[in-house]
């Protein structure tokens, strides 16, 4: 029993922020104390300490340098295995932090870092500054440059291109430790899209589960900057919108996802909840579908199959009913803080269902949809 239990335990890792702070401390120690260490201990933002291995530690020509290899543990993090490098030089006062190779630059407002600055988030900046100050003599300042070789290539697999962070990855982390398969961390990574849209002046937002929806939004002529991906966390993103000055949300997505919302399912991961067949069947029954049609709907393998079945039976109106139901459920879920419209499409990109609110919000965003 003991060995099988051990196999289930997932290994924690550490954030890029922790890596940067550890590398900066080791580089400062090499420069100021002439000490080449193989590991350093840093303080975590929420209390406690973390000891990380360091490598490539050296000091020459008035510059200290150290490396920490990012270990995400068992979390599926695209930055796992990258090397975070810190270079430290002395200055008169203060600790000044900049980004080097592989660190992105912020180009759009609405993020925690101002436009033009390196994408090193506030908490990692505080961690870097604190650790370097533990090594600096009183009154002495330093300049710290953080770089991540290979960061520019990996950045394309992150949210950075969507957020207007160009040229590399971000240095992130609020707790210092990566919890394996952290759903909360993933959810947090999506929220800056909302803040950025608001900072750019949008009060009407488009929420879509994934890249397919982003492409559909572009096809419809919706402004790219007001479109936010939700992944499976539609409910969580609606909650975040409700805490901000959002005036309207257009839910735009494949029918397979938004039929779930019509059923009151706001975390749309299939293994957690899936009432698509039942929901489609119930709404088809409301439109007068025969028992035979309902049985066919109850036996479909994918929601996509329902499009042809309902079309053949002259029941395509079902999807408009579902769109309206999705909007009602989403508005209720959000405490009716803003108006909600829904537009759903098939895998072929054909718009199959929408409601009046979708037409209103889309019209206000000057979309190019030609809906009846």
Structural description of this entry:
The chain is α/β, with parallel strands linked by helices. The protein has two domains: 11-181, CbiD-like; 184-364, no CATH class. It has helices spanning 2-8, 16-33, 122-133, 151-155, 160-163, 183-190, 192-199, 211-219, 234-242, 255-262, 276-286, 291-298, 305-312, 317-333, 356-364, and strands at 13-14, 39-43, 49-53, 55-60, 63-69, 83-91, 95-99, 105-106, 141-147, 165-166, 177-178, 204-208, 227-229, 248-254, 339-345, 351-354. The longest helix has 18 residues, at 16-33.
Query: Using only CA atoms, what is the Rg?
Result: 25 Å
Q: List the quaternary state of the chains.
A: single chain
Biggest sheet, in brief?
5 strands, mixed
Q: Into which percent range does the helicity of residues fall? A: 25-40%
Q: Judging from the principal axes of the Cα atoms, what is the shape?
A: elongated
Termini separation (Å)? 63 Å
The low-confidence parts are 1-8
Arithmetic mean pLDDT: 92
Number of strands: 16
* Order of the strands making up the biggest sheet: 4-5-6-9-7
Please count the helical segments: 15
User: Could you say which structural class the secondary elements and strand pairing correspond to?
Assistant: alpha/beta
Count of individual domains = 2
| Proportion of strand residues | 15-25%
